Request: fold
Amino acid sequence: MNVELLLNDILLDLFNYFGGIDLLHAFYDLNFRFNFLLYNESQMYRFNFCSMLKRDFHMIYQQRLSVITDRIIRLSLSEHEETSKQINLFDSYLLSFKERVDELINSFRSSFWTDEHQ
Reply:
């Protein structure tokens, strides 16, 4: 059976069995449909970078994470010699993530305040 024949809902369920790294390596850039599903708003990601080589970490960090920051639900980092500086790299990344969360909270508060007092 060809995996491309599966319905989108089945593929999205299947994606839940993959960690973020494996999911991106296996399905990213196969075709437009897979890319669309990978960046679907309902797709959540779990990343474990602890045993990842530094060059692979940089590739995923620089090319993929900026697009899915709001959908990362678990993140594991390491400071081992082979994977050094992961936490330092994420300092700047987490700052932008925190800013996005703050914007979302402020937006929610604004709409709540407006709805509550009309």
Q: What stands out?
A: The longest strand covers residues 72-76.
